[in-house]
Fold:
Amino acid sequence: MPADERFAVRRESARASVPRPLTAAPAPAGVPLPPGLALRGRLATGARRPETPRGSGRGGSGSRTPRSGRGGGPRRAYERARRSWDRPLTAYYVILGSSLLITVLGLVMVYSASMIKALDISKPATYFFGKQFLAAVIGGGLMLIAARMPVKLHRGLAYPILMVTVFLMILVQVPGIGMSVNGNQNWLYLGGPFQLQPSEFGKLALILWGADLLARKQDKRLLTQWKHMLVPLVPVAFMLLGLIMLGGDMGTAIILTAILFGLLWLAGAPTRLFAGVLGFAAVLAFLLIRTSPNRMSRLACMGVSEPDPEGGCWQAAHGIYALASGGWFGSGLGASVEKWGQLPEPHTDFIFAITGEELGLAGTLSVLALFAALGYAGIRVAGRTEDPFVRYAAGGVTTWITAQAVINIGAVLGLLPIAGVPLPLFSYGGSALLPTMFAVGLMIAFAREDPAAKAALAMRRPGVRWKTMRRRVKKRSSGER
Structure:
C-alpha cells in the first residue's frame, strides 16, 4: 500500500475514535422535545442566547417600562380603591362593619334623645336605653346564629317563620290579647315593659318564604309564565298586607309592598306585569289614604317649614327646626333643644332629626354613608352569587333596609309623608331591631358562602397558613448541604 493511502486510513480511524457531541434528532411534527435533549441540541449546534444590550438589564441606565402606579396621584388612589373593593371579603367586612357601626351609633343617639322622655314619664334617664341595649344584645346573638347557619337551614326555616308570623298577626286582632299603640292595633303584650310587634317579623318571613318559592320555581323553569311568577307569591303578600292594615299600620304595609316589588324585579317580571301590580298597589294606597283623615293630614305636611296655627304639622316642622339648628358639626351630644317636649317621638321615628341637631351635617352624612355602604354590599352579594335563593333573599333584605331608611329619612327632611317607620338598626324599638339584625346575619352568611370568600377565610384560620408554608418548602436529601 502506498504511503499516502496508509496516512489517509490512519487519519480516518483517529477521527472515528474521538467522541462526538450528542445532538437531538429532529422531532416529529407536533411532538415537543424533552427539556434535556432540547438543551443538548442547542449546545451542540452552537446556539447562543441573544445578547442583551448594555444598560437595559438590572440597574442599567437604558429605557425602562414605566410603572403604572407611579406618578398617578388620584389615579393611583382610584386603582387602589378599586382593587380593595374587588377583594373576595369586601362584602363580608362592609356588611359586618357598617351594621355594627349603625347599631352602636343608634344606641348612643337613643340614650341622648330619650333621656327627657324617660324623665317625663317618671322613669330613670336610662330607661329606653336599657331596653334598646338588651334588644341589641339579643339581636347580636341572632345575627351571629344567622351568620353561622348554612343556606339550606335558612331555606328550611322559611315556612315555619311564615306560619308563626301569620299566627301572631292574627292573634293581634283578638280582643283582649292585642294592644293598641298610637292608634295602631298591632302589638302583643309580653309582660312587664316588653311588647312585640309581629308585623316587623312579617318582612323577614316574606323574604325567606318568597326567596325559597322563586328559587324552586326557577329550578323548574316556571318563572317564564306569569301565573307561576305571581301565584302564590302575590296572594300571600296581600294576605300579610291585609293583616297589617287591619291594625292601621300604613308604614309597615309600604315596606312590605316594596319587598314584594323587589322580589318580582329580581325574578325578572315583565314590564307590563310589573307595571300592572304597581298600578294596583298605587290605586289601593290612594284609596286607603283618601279615606283616612289622619293619613291625609300627614300627606299635607310634606315640605312645610312651620306648623299650622291650629297645631297641625307640628312634628314635621320641628323636625326641620332640629336639622336646621345643627349646623356643620351640631350642638354636641345631649345638647338638643327639640327633645325637651317640642319634637314628638324624638327617639323613634324622628331620631334622625336629633342626630342632625346634635351631630350636625357631619353626623347625618356619616349615617347616610353607612346605609349606602350596607346597601352596596347587599347588591354585590346578590349580584355575584349563582344560587337563586341567595340572590332573591339578599336582594329582598337590601330592598327592605334601604327602602325603610329612605322613607324614614325622607319624612324627616319633609320630602315624603310621615309613615311612622323607624330607621333600621338606629331607632328605638326592639321589635324592629331583632328581625333586622337577623336579616343582617343572613347577608353575612351569604357573603361567606362565596367560593372566593370561603378560600380567603380558610387562609385566615389559625395554623392554616403555617401548614401551607411548610408544604411549599422543598425537602432536601440527607447528603445535601
